[in-house]
Amino acid sequence: MKFLRFMKWTIRILLVLFVLGFLHYTLPQHDIVRITNTYNRLTTVGPENSWAYSAPDSGTAESTSTRDIRFIDAAFDGGKVIVYRNEDTGWVWPPYFKYDSSNLQAEATNLKSSGTEAKWVVVTHYGWRIPLLSIYPNAVAVREATGPDETIIPWVNIVVLIFLIFIVIMVRRMWAQFWERTIEPAAANVEEAWDSAEARATGFWGRIRRMFGGK
Questions:
Q1: In the prediction, which pLDDT does 198 show?
Q2: Residue 86, class by beta-carbon neighbours within 10 Å (0-12 exposed, 13-18 middle, 19+ buried)?
Q3: Which residues pair with 125 in a beta bridge?
Q4: pLDDT for 177-187, tens place per residue?
Q5: What are the C-alpha distances in Å from 194 to residues 85, 101, 208?
Q6: If you ran DSSP here, which 8-state letter would residue 61 be given?
Q7: Are the C-beta atoms of residues 144 and 121 closer than 8 Å to each other?
Q8: Which of 29, 91, 115, 130 measures 20 to 30 Å from 21, CA to CA?
Q9: How far is it, in rounded angstroms, from Cα 85 to Cα 40?
Q10: The CATH classification of domain 10-152, taken from the options 2.60.40, 2.40.50, 1.10.260, 1.10.10
C-alpha cells in the first residue's frame, strides 16, 4: 500500500510539474532590456532542439537542418545579457499567429541603443534560453518602455490561468457527480450481489454439512 501511495503521489507531482513547465514555456513573458544588436545567422537545428523552433515553412529555411534565423541581442539593467530568436510561428503551437518577423526585426533594429544612451524596450516572448541545446526564447513583440523599472501586468497569463482553474474546478465537480451518481451505486449493487451470493453459498454448504451430520 505504501508503494502504491508513493507511486500515486509521484505521478501527480510529475503531472503538475509537466503542466507548470508547459505553461511557463508557452505563456508570454515580458523582459525590459536594452537591445544591443540584431542580425541573421545560419543555425543548425537538430533532433535535440527542433521542438523549440518553428516549422521550416513558417520562416526562412536553407534546409531541414540549417536555417537562416533572425536574432536579437539584449541586456538587462544589471548587465546580464540575453539572446532572442525572431521566428514566425504560423498557425502551429503556440498560437501566437506571428507572421511579421521581418517587421519585428526592423522595429528591434530601430530601438537599438548604447550603454551611455540607453533606450529601454519591452520584449514580449515565449520559451526558454538553454545554451547547452542552443535554444532561444522567441520574441513576438517589442515596444519602447518608460524605463527599466516599468511595471508590467501579465493580463494574458492571468486570464488564461483563471480560465484553466475554472476548467479544473468544473471537471472535478463533474467527476464527483459522476462518481456519486454512477460509480458508487454500481459498486453498492456489486457488493450487495456479492453478499447475496455469498449468503446463498453459505446456506447451501451449510445444508450439505448438516446432511452429513455436520454442524
A1: 59
A2: buried
A3: 29, 139
A4: 887 888 777 77
A5: 65, 67, 21
A6: B
A7: yes
A8: 91
A9: 9
A10: 2.40.50
